[in-house]
């Protein structure tokens, strides 16, 4: 069997990607729960608040997973020796993209809200 991640840096990149994908799954579940709680409205306040709280919890866990993924990717960068080609480099880059995309999306959305005047800070 061929090892897809033959170097320690590649393995850290793999863990970073896995952590990022877990974060995306958590945020999708959390967003669904949050949206479901908001859509219930006044019909059942207890259920609505429970769903919203669970949604927030899942979204918080997603942020932790993404932070862990960035840490794994950074650890992979430290494993790469200078001037030595490493096949794990591409996995580290993918890990940074998977875990950094939420930060870029949130920053872009806040920038959009600032430009349209919907928020002031």
TrEMBL record:
* Keywords linked to the UniProt accession: Membrane, Transmembrane, Transmembrane helix
**Where exactly are the transmembrane stretches of this chain?**
12-37, 58-82, 88-112
Q: What is this protein called?
A: Uncharacterized protein
Source organism (scientific name): Fimbriiglobus ruber
């Amino acid at each position: 069997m061929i090892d897809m991640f033959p170097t320690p840096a590649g393995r850290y990149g793999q863990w970073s990607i896995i952590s990022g994908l877990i974060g995306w799954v958590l945020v999708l579940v959390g967003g669904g729960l949050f949206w479901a709680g908001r859509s219930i409205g006044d019909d059942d306040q207890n259920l609505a608040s429970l769903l919203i709280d669970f949604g927030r919890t899942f979204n918080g866990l997603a942020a932790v997973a993404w932070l862990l993924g960035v840490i794994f990717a950074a650890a992979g960068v430290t494993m790469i020796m200078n001037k030595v080609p490493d096949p794990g480099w591409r996995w580290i880059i993918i890990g940074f993209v998977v875990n950094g995309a939420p930060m870029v999306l949130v920053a872009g959305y806040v920038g959009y809200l600032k430009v349209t005047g919907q928020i002031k800070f």
